[in-house]
C-alpha cells in the first residue's frame, strides 16, 4: 500500500506517523521527488511537503568533474531540509555520477566540459525557490548552509555570495591561487565600483527567479565572477557577501592558476565594456505565487 497526501492532510498523517514512530518507524527522504517517505510495518507512506525550510523549497546545485573522492562526503553532510540536490556530472571519467546517485542526488550529465557550462545545465533544471551552490570537492562547508540561508533571508538582497577571506586555513589555498584571487577581486571592485572580497567564490545563495534578469555568457571558470557581476549590476537583484570557512579540497585540482586567471581577467574587461561576444543564456521567468521576493516573505 502506498498512500499520498497533500499538505492539507499533512497534520493528520503526521500525527499518525509520530505515533507509529514509537513502534519502529524508519524515515527516509527522497529529495529528487521532493517528498518525505515513511516505512511502517511493511507499508510506505509518502507525504508531499511544498517547501520544508520556512515555506521555501531549497535546491543545492553542485557541478562536478572527477569528484569521486569528495562528492560522497559533501552529500553525506547535506541537511535534511534541502528539497533537491542536483549534481551536474561534467563528463567525468571516474564514478562521480554513480556515487552521487547512490546518495539520492539527481544527476545530470553535461558532455561539454566547462565550469559555467555545468552550472547553466544545473540551474536550468533546478526547481527550488532558493538555490544554494557549492563545489563537489568538500572545500566549502556543507554544514554552513542553514547559516547562509538565515543570513540570506535577512540580507535584503536576492544574491548572497560566501567569501573565503580572510583565509583562516592557509593550507586550504595555494599562494598562487591566493594572489590570483586577490588580483581578480580587486579588478572586479574597480571595474564595477563595488567592493568584492572574493570574486571567485563558488558558494552562493540566491533566488531562482533572479536568473531571469541575468545575462550569463561564460561557459568557463569566469562564470563565477560573471554571476556576481550580474547581481551587482541589476538593482532589482542586489548583492552582498558573507564570510565562510574554507577547507582543503579532496581530489585533483582542476584550476590552472595562470591560464585561468588570465582568461578571467580578460573576461572582466570584455564584460565591463560589452565585448563578451557570445549570446547570453536565457533563463525562463519564474513567477512567485506570493508576488514578493523569497527573502522579503515572513
Overview of the structural elements:
The longest helix is centred in the middle third of the chain and has 18 residues, at 175-192. The chain starts with a strand and ends in a 26-residue tail after the last helix. It is built from eight helices and eleven strands. The strands form two sheets. The chain has a seven-stranded mixed β-sheet with strand order 7-6-5-8-10-9-11, sandwiched between helices. Helix 2 runs parallel beside helix 3 (96-102) and helix 6 (175-192) runs parallel beside helix 8. It has helices spanning 10-21, 68-76, 96-102, 115-125, 145-153, 175-192, 223-233, 257-272, and strands at residues 2-5, 26-30, 35-40, 43-48, 58-64, 84-89, 106-109, 130-133, 159-163, 204-207, 240-243. By secondary structure, the protein is an alpha/beta fold. It folds into two domains: 2-48, no CATH class; 58-272, Spore Coat Polysaccharide Biosynthesis Protein SpsA, Chain A. Mean pLDDT is 83; it is low at 1-41, 44-50 and 288-298.
- The CATH homologous superfamily of the largest domain is called Spore Coat Polysaccharide Biosynthesis Protein SpsA, Chain A
Q: What percent of residues are in strands?
A: 15-25%
CATH class of the largest domain: Alpha Beta
Identify the overall geometry: globular
The DSSP helix count reads: 8
Which structural category do the helix and sheet elements fall into? alpha/beta
| Helix and strand sequence | EHEEEEHEHEHEHEHEHEH
The level of helicity is 25-40%
Major sheet size, sense and barrel closure: 7 strands, mixed
The parts where pLDDT drops under 50 for at least 5 residues are 1-41, 44-50, 288-298
Q: Kindly report the spatial arrangement of strands forming the biggest sheet.
A: 7-6-5-8-10-9-11
What integer is the average pLDDT?
83
The separation of the N and C termini measures 38 Å
Q: Count every beta strand, where a strand is a DSSP E run of 2 or more residues.
A: 11
* CATH-scheme architecture of the largest domain: Alpha-Beta Complex
Q: Number of domains in the coordinates?
A: 2
Amino acid at each position: 500500500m502506498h498512500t499520498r497526501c497533500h499538505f492539507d492532510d499533512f497534520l493528520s498523517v503526521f500525527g499518525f506517523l509520530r505515533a507509529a514512530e514509537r513502534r519502529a518507524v524508519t524515515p527516509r527522504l527522497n529529495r529528487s521527488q521532493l517528498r518525505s517517505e515513511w516505512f511502517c510495518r511493511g507499508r510506505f507512506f509518502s507525504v508531499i511537503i511544498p517547501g520544508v525550510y520556512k515555506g521555501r523549497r531549497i535546491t543545492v546545485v553542485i557541478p562536478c568533474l572527477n569528484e569521486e573522492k569528495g562528492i560522497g562526503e559533501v552529500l553525506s553532510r547535506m541537511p535534511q531540509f534541502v528539497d533537491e540536490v542536483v549534481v551536474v556530472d561534467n563528463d567525468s571519467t571516474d564514478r562521480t555520477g554513480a556515487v552521487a546517485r547512490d546518495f539520492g542526488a539527481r544527476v545530470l550529465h553535461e558532455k561539454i566540459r566547462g565550469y559555467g557550462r555545468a552550472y547553466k545545465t544545473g540551474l536550468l533544471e533546478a526547481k527550488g525557490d532558493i538555490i544554494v551552490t557549492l563545489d563537489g570537492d568538500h572545500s566549502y562547508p556543507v554544514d554552513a548552509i542553514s547559516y547562509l540561508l538565515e543570513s540570506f533571508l535577512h540580507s535584503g538582497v536576492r544574491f548572497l555570495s560566501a567569501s573565503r577571506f580572510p583565509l583562516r586555513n592557509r593550507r586550504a589555498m595555494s599562494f598562487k591561487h591566493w594572489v590570483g584571487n586577490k588580483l581578480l577581486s580587486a579588478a572586479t571592485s574597480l571595474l564595477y565600483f563595488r567592493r568584492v572580497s572574493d570574486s571567485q567564490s563558488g558558494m552562493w545563495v540566491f533566488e531562482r527567479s533572479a536568473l531571469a534578469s541575468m545575462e550569463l555568457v561564460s561557459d568557463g571558470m569566469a562564470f563565477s565572477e560573471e554571476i556576481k557581476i550580474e547581481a551587482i549590476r541589476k538593482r532589482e537583484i542586489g548583492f552582498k557577501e558573507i564570510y565562510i570557512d574554507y577547507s582543503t579540497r579532496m581530489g585533483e585540482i582542476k584550476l590552472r592558476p595562470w591560464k585561468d586567471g588570465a582568461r578571467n581577467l580578460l573576461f572582466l574587461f570584455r564584460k565591463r565594456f560589452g565585448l563578451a561576444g557570445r549570446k547570453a543564456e536565457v533563463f525562463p521567468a519564474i513567477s512567485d505565487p506570493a508576488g514578493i521576493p523569497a527573502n522579503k516573505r515572513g
